[in-house]
Amino acid sequence: MPLSTRAALFWDLVLGVLGTLAFLIDLGADLWAASQYVLSGRYLWAALVLALLGLASVALQLFSWIWLRSDPHGLHTSQPPGQCLALLHLLQLGYLYRCVQGLQQGLLVWRQEAPSQFDLAYADFLSLDISMLRLFETFLETTPQLTLVLAIVLQRGSAEYYQWVSICTSFVGISWALLDYHRALRTCLPSTPRLGLGTSVIYFLWNLLLLWPRVLVVALFSALFPRYVVLHFLGLWLVLLFWVWLQGTDFMPDPCSEWLYRATVATVLYFSWFNVAEGPTRGRATIHLVFLLSDSLLMVVTWVTHVTWLPSGSLLQMLLPGAGVCFLLGLALRLVYYCWLHPSCHWEPDRVDGAWGLRSLEERPLPQNRRMARLAQNFFPKAKDAPALLRKGEVNGVL
């Protein structure tokens, strides 16, 4: 194996370990916060934290189990029997099992002097599913948890040490998941430039800077109107769900599970942009940005005209201007990315990239992760030479 390829494989393995550790640390921080709420007698807050954890975990296990069942027989030869896999998912350990399996396959490939093309492609297949599940976990659990913690801090006017830990781990985990998912998408199309170090920094920053004002706005609304925030979320979520349905998504293997995917995407769209359909994305992304910005401005007007102010007035005077600056800076970085760094632009990719990104799809056999490849085509509609797999309409994971 060439030395550069081995180094890139090692870098991807390190990123996989860091992603798994970030998930465990964020989970531990949330459980720690819930235990502190119980010890201090704030049972409602503890119940909300555990409820968000439980709902997100159930959805994550459902996605993982449905995908495993839809993959062709014989693809995952090293997996335990079906009953053991079902038990793992029932115990809410399916996602962690996938992470361990992906790390084992990556380590196997890295240790081989001349890994087979099948081993390389299979490691790629596993890593793509893990990236998608990590993104879903981020917006189903981490982002709502962050909003809840910020609302509690704003209501009280101060933050405990465990709350600061939860806030910091959540922000890093959210941005990391978005970056990892976007990087995974780029590995699906042979003509798409790989995500390099400089591009990764820009993409990480604009997602973080645009997400922070949205989370703060929702947290402030939750702190002022805790009884109405659920109605607000459900109202917007239904509108976004209808929008996703109109775009005719076809991601899951059956119609029932497709609605689970649409409901999850609607939750993601409540906080951030997520493309699910083919065709030019600029118009839809602009509509979504204007929609969220209008909703956020309406909530800001609601705070200003409300007679009862939060006890953290001095903190709020710093947070609101800071959120506005973050939004403008994030918007500027997003324009920089789409004008000069997006795959539709003519630019040379930088060299720092994962080992999976060093191989063209023409140089490796299947298994091919059809789920992520189709999403990659949606995100990068201008990418040429799409995989023959999608042109032929073959099933996911066909050998």
Based on the model shown, name its key terms.
mainly alpha, XK-rel, single chain, disordered C terminus, membrane, XK-related_scramblase, transmembrane helix, XK-related protein, 0% strand, 399 residues
Give an overview of the whole structure.
- By secondary structure, the chain is mainly alpha-helical.
- The chain has one domain (3-218, 279-287, 313-392).
- The chain has 13 helices and no strands.
- The protein has helices at residues 3-39, 43-70, 82-90, 94-111, 117-156, 161-186, 197-224, 229-246, 255-271, 282-305, 313-341, 370-379, 388-392.
- The chain is globular and about 65 Å long.
Give the rounded overall mean pLDDT: 79
- Report the structural category: mainly alpha
Q: Considering DSSP H and I runs of 4 or more, what fraction of the residues is helical?
A: over 70%
Order of helices and strands: HHHHHHHHHHHHH
Query: How many helices does DSSP assign?
Result: 13
Q: What count of structural domains?
A: 1
Major sheet description: none
Number of strands: 0
Specify the overall morphology.
globular
Low-confidence stretches: 346-365, 383-399
Kindly provide the radius of gyration, computed on alpha-carbon positions and rounded to a whole number of angstroms.
21 Å
Distance between the termini: 24 Å
The proportion of strand residues reads: under 5%
Summarize the structure.
The protein is mainly α and 399 residues long. The chain is 72% helix and 0% strand. It has one domain.
